[in-house]
Amino acid sequence: MNSLSIRDLCSLFCCPPLPSHIAAKLAFLPPDATYSLIVTDNSTAANGNSDQSTVPTITKKSPAESSINLRYTIHFSEKAEWQHSPTEITKIEPYFVTTSRRNQIACVYVKCTANPKYYILFSHGNAVDLGQMSSFFIVLGARLQCNIFSYDYSGYGASQGKASEKNMYADIEAAYNSIKQRYQIPSSKIILYGQSIGTVPTVDLASRIKDCCVACVLHSPLTSGMRVAFPETKRTWCCDAFPSIDKIHRIHTIVLIIHGTEDDVIDVSHGFALYNRIQIQHQAEPLWLDGAGHNDIEAHGQYVERLLRLIDVDIPQIYLKKQQTEQPASVSTPTVLASTLIIPSSSTANGTN
């Protein structure tokens, strides 16, 4: 039996309680922007330098409507945790996309390697923006040999609009479409990665668009907003926000969950609950990081090791099994004579288990 009464809910979230109100009060904490995007011509965009006195800064209040035809450089303010070198800035390609809800959001393509194994669409956590995350993307992408795309939610960084659950879902879809259309990257090369609140749009996109990616990583995920605020909540209320627990079973790709056992923001029980709702054939071995909290998972060596195993072992094995499953449908039934030439299954066991 749920420990919350309707009266409790109404008194806390106002009457009638709305998911957007819960989201605003429990989740969204946009920081002061730590960067700006500056319009530049092709020559200055190529070397990562720009004359800030002669080019306009694009802000969330006045993004260029024709931004698809513009080139930008990213300028980090003093609030940014890391000031990048000119060489590092050349690895960051910023741009704007317009969402289905008519907000223009800031995106970055971080080119970490010339021959990426995969492209990671990273949905970052709360209270940070692209200016604070870009240095992490450069380091992580180089370590995994993957290039990284990311975006700021509506109301974050240089992105237009206001932070809300519906905007968040539109934001990730617009960023995802830009990977497919602007850069012509196939779904088989895309990994969706969500961290903390970023797991919400990640789960939503992966549950709505079948085969949109080759794998999905959920880093410190939450089951729903109400379950974070009230740990005794056992069901999804009509006023609940971010109900990933009710969507995750619809994901049709491999899902890796990473969660710290000492997380005091989103308890590890959320990770357990989500893992148990993933279809068995899509469960990747989770990483429950002993002693890790909510904001220090990346400091543990097992973190990168597990991601490397996902990329180099888990995904290739899943892809091989999928090929083997689909093969009989496209191959005619062998004759009795030909069946004597089939390679025994024992000789291929090492490649499929």
Task: Give an overview in words.
The chain has 353 residues and is of the alpha/beta class. The chain has one domain (19-327): Rossmann fold, CATH 3.40.50.1820. 32% of the residues lie in helices and 17% in strands. It has ten helices and eleven strands. It has helices spanning 6-13, 19-26, 42-47, 86-89, 130-144, 165-181, 199-208, 225-229, 268-277, 301-330, and strands at 35-40, 57-58, 71-76, 92-98, 104-110, 119-123, 147-151, 190-195, 215-219, 254-260, 287-289. The strands form two sheets. The chain has an eight-stranded mixed β-sheet with strand order 4-5-7-6-8-9-10-11, with helices on both faces. Helix 8 (225-229) links the parallel strand 9 and strand 10. Helix 6 (165-181) crosses helix 7. The longest helix is centred in the C-terminal third of the chain and has 30 residues, at 301-330. It is globular and about 50 Å long. The relative contact order is 0.11. Residues 6-17, 43-55 and 332-353 have low confidence and may be disordered.
